[in-house]
Amino acid sequence: MDRRNFLATSGALALSSTLPRMAFAQDNTITFGGSIPMTGGAAETGLNVLNGYRCAVKYINEEMGGAEIGGEKYQLALNLFDDASDPSRATTLIQSQVDEGIDFFLGSFGSSIVLPTCAITEAAGRIMVQAGGGSDLIFTQGRERVFGIFPRASKQFVSSVNMFTSLDPKVETVSILYTNNAFSKFQAEGARTSLEEAGIKVLDFIALPAQVNDVSNVLTTIRENTPDVLVCTTHDEPSILIARQMVATNTNVPMLYQTLGPQTAGYRDALGNYANGVVTQAYWSERAPYSGDYFGSAADFAKYYNANFERELTYHMASGAACIVSYVQAAKNAGTLEVGAVRDALAALDFECFYGQIRFTEDGDGDAALLGPLLIQRQDGEMEVIAPAEGASAEPIYPAPTWEERA
Length: 407
Prior knowledge:
Rossmann fold, 18 strands, disordered N terminus
């Protein structure tokens, strides 16, 4: 098969809530398949990742005139469908796209969706590059064609522990809440290991249901045995629920740290001033000192995104765009769109762009030394980088004000 012939959509982006129906084949167009949560529980962040994909396609097509690979120019197109945050729906969509000839896939958001869909693309000999799944299971089951912009979940807490040990007063105790799903559990276990290795005592390690409706009993435990830091390895909606119930029950801790949720406009809108002081992870900042051939610097990416898209910029947009950039750079290095060659070039990637130094481990996840998270804290409504110190835009506020003081 001539890999220059890709099933393409009629424009740069096709979005649908129905099963995919591919358009006619078109030369010199690279079509990326996949699904993304545009509705359902993961939609808040899913739409952020989607806008990152869209941003990179728009920039490369319009500002760079396309991607030059092997002496030829190619336009990029997206053929992404709404999986409604439903793994079963996502697997149906991805299998249909595999059957219709898509070779290059972008990931959905959430390990519960990425895990079964990447199993389909792997078995079919196709490639997936994704910024939505960090579960260790994605990267420890022998897959060779799945690449993640983030480090695997169990390796995502090293920078956090470094910050905890540098705070004054020093963090001595931590409690961990996690939802019982493929990502959060691995991240929580990695956090516990890293904390204990640093000599920080883990007071409680509490599993919540995958679908959380109430945490009042758990918060009673937190009030009775208050840690210096409450770590929640939870996704957007559970993070909002936990914070709201902490406010309602006056459950105060010196630091509330939630790995997903506080980065989003939805979290800010739901909690208002109570969002101030909450700490979270970010895998990119427009203040970061990175630059390269695509977009220019991190600040240039932010400027371009804000000029072309209305949805508030978070690191998820940059991560999504980095997936597209990684594909294009790998194909450029390979000099061909032959799937095996692109796969090998992805495995060997080591280049700097607006997102940072992109390099994957031999298992396909992001190199933790290069692509691990920054720590950010909402201060007076602004997201400030508080660690690592060399990249910080503000000092951590610790201990944080009580909920009553934030009202």
